[in-house]
């Protein structure tokens, strides 16, 4: 046999041994993973009627001649037969993860166990899944703390733990998840402050922390999340100031901080958020004036500042917000006149100004708001005549009660054929009650007292 033939034989032998060894390893891994899944299944309640009936080992554990766990419901494998995805969302699972041996799945990269009836704690051993990219345990009954070991999942892109019964604080180790783009922890009982380490998640695009018991100040380090598009932190117990560093988040389209205990003034820097569409700061203890920089929020469609302690006048710059659909400034201490520039908000459908200290005449320019559906201006100090306010005919709710308005109710009000609720009481209107009142086929309530 020549030298070339010997070399070819040696290469063939090496390839054979390599492939044989690989087959043995794959079979061994598949058996281990299959057994781990069967063991976990045995701990679940009411599995006889579940979707896991396909989770059965072949005779004599002969995985090598079968598809093994790769053919089971909710289980997917990579090219060498090792489990890499477990998708059991909405599968009527009832039990815990206590007997799920995470270490048996070296290639598991995707777990979705959402919308089941899983309970107990999230096991710290979940941190052993070094290749995990996606984890969703939402809409279950998990309780206890978020384990700090979750910070070991450094490849994680998505973490959803929403609508459980988790408590305790957000572990600072979450700040190690540098690949994370989506973090959703809403509707739990999480408490304590937001760890400053959250500011390390510079790839984060979506952050949902609302509907918890989180407290303390909002860390200025959150201004480092420059790729953030949505930030929902409402319905918690946050205190202190809104950090001016949030003005760095120029990709934000939604910023919700409502239903907290935030105080101090609104930073002018918020006006830098040119991509912002939804801004909700209502129901806090904010004071000072509405920043004139809000006139630079060129994309905003919803602006909610009601139920605070804001004072000063309504900035005329708000008339620049050409896409604004919903403006709610009620229940503050705003004073002075309504700026005529609000008449330029051609997309406006909802305007709430009630329960302030606004005064002067109601500008006739508001009659240009032809898409207006709801106009509430009650409990202020408006004076003068009521202008023609129903040019578009779409108005359904109109309240100007508890003011100092005089004169007659304009004939043009009959154009409001959609009007369902109107209050004119506690003013000084004069004249006859017009027969034009019959022009409102949808009227449910009107107060002229």
From TrEMBL:
Coiled coil: none
One Pfam assignment: LRR_14
GO CC field: plasma membrane
Signal peptide positions on this chain: 1-29
Primary subcellular site in the record, as a coarse category: membrane
Subcellular location: Cell membrane
Limits of the Disease resistance R13L4/SHOC-2-like LRR domain: 245-419
GO biological process: defense response; response to other organism
Designated name of the protein: non-specific serine/threonine protein kinase
GO molecular function, one term: protein serine/threonine kinase activity
Database matches in PANTHER family: DNA DAMAGE-REPAIR/TOLERATION PROTEIN DRT100, NON-SPECIFIC SERINE_THREONINE PROTEIN KINASE
Originating species: Camellia sinensis var. sinensis (China tea)
Annotated Leucine-rich repeat-containing N-terminal plant-type domain residues: 33-78
Lipid bilayer topology: Single-pass type I membrane protein
């Amino acid at each position: 046999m020549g030298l070339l033939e010997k070399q070819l034989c040696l290469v063939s032998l090496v390839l054979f041994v390599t492939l044989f060894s690989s087959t043995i390893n794959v079979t061994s891994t598949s058996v281990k993973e299959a057994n781990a899944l069967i063991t976990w299944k045995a701990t679940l309640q009411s599995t006889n009627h579940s979707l896991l009936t396909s989770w059965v080992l072949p005779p004599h554990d002969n995985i090598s001649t079968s598809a093994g766990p790769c053919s089971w419901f909710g289980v997917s494998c990579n090219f060498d037969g090792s489990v890499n995805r477990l998708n059991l969302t909405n599968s009527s699972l009832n039990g815990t993860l206590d007997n799920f041996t995470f270490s048996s799945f070296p290639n598991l990269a995707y777990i979705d166990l959402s919308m089941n009836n899983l309970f107990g704690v999230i096991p710290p051993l979940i941190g052993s899944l070094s290749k995990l990219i996606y984890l969703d345990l939402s809409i279950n009954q998990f309780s206890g703390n978020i384990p700090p070991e979750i910070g070991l999942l450094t490849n994680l892109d998505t973490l959803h733990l929403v609508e459980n019964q988790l408590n305790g604080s957000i572990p600072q180790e979450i700040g190690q998840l540098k690949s994370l783009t989506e973090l959703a922890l809403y509707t739990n009982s999480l408490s304590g402050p937001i760890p400053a380490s959250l500011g390390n998640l510079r790839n984060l695009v979506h952050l949902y922390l609302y509907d918890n018991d989180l407290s303390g100040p909002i860390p200025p380090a959150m201004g480092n999340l420059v790729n953030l598009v949505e930030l929902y932190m409402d319905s918690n117990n946050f205190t202190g100031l809104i950090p001016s560093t949030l003005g760095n988040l120029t990709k934000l389209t939604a910023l919700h901080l409502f239903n907290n205990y935030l105080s101090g003034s609104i930073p002018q820097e918020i006006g830098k958020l040119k991509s912002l569409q939804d801004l909700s700061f209502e129901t806090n203890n904010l004071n000072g004036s509405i920043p004139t920089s809000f006139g630079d929020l060129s994309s905003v469609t919803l602006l909610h500042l009601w139920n605070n302690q804001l004072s000063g006048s309504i900035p005329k710059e708000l008339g620049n917000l050409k896409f604004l659909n919903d403006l709610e400034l009620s229940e503050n201490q705003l004073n002075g006149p309504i700026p005529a520039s609000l008449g330029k908000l051609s997309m406006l459908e909802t305007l709430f100004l009630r329960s302030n200290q606004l005064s002067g005449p109601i500008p006739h320019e508001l009659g240009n708001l032809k898409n207006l559906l709801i106009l509430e201006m009650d409990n202020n100090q408006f004076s003068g005549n009521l202008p023609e306010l129903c040019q578009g005919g779409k108005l359904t709710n109109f309240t100007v009660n508890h003011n100092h308005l005089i004169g007659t109710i304009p004939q043009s009000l009959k154009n409001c054929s959609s009007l369902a609720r109107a209050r004119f009481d506690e003013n000084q209107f004069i004249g006859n009650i017009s027969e034009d009142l019959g022009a409102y086929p949808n009227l449910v309530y009107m107060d002229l007292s």
